[in-house]
Amino acid sequence: MNTTINQYRTNHFTKQFPKQFPNQIYKKDDNKNLFHFNNQYVYKDQYKNLQVESICIPRVDISISKDFIYNTLSELRIGKIHKIIEIPLRNEFSYKRIIIKIQWNNNEPITHNIKKHLYETGSFKIVYDMPWYWKIVLTYEK
Q1: 64 and 130 both lie in a single domain
Q2: If 0-12 CB within 10 Å is exposed, 13-18 middle and 19+ buried, where does residue 86 land?
């Protein structure tokens, strides 16, 4: 009886709540050449532009809040920020690492410039309070 309830809960919640940041296609509608992504239908050629990517600010002062980071990046209009994760640094207790899940806005020219610079050089800098800046790099899975 107990295993049946656990099995029901597992199946029920997996079907109800898919991953928050999908990097894969859930359903494909063959007749219309559409994909179901993030609760919306998208044409096959547009799907590549909608993928969520992870970027990282390797070292941020602990006094800087998630809201400040969110507002600073939102002002640039480089994309939709899905999630911000704070990770404390092991050896430096007054600093933290920030992981940002972002869906790039490819309609803005600044986004193309930032992505080009990011992929060519491996990083870019955002000045958040003159002369202070954040160095932003791509996040790679281990």
Answers
A1: yes
A2: middle
77 lies in the same domain as 62 = yes
Rounded to whole angstroms, the Cα distance separating 73 from 126 reads 9
Task: Find all residues with CB under 8 Å of 95, minimum gap 6, and list them.
Answer: 59, 60, 61, 62, 89
The rounded distance, in Å, linking the Cα atoms of 13 and 100 is 26
Q: What is the tens place of the pLDDT at every residue in 33-43?
A: 555 554 555 55
Residue 140 banded pLDDT, cuts 50, 70, 90: confident
Please state whether the predicted TM-score (pTM) of the whole model is above 0.70: no
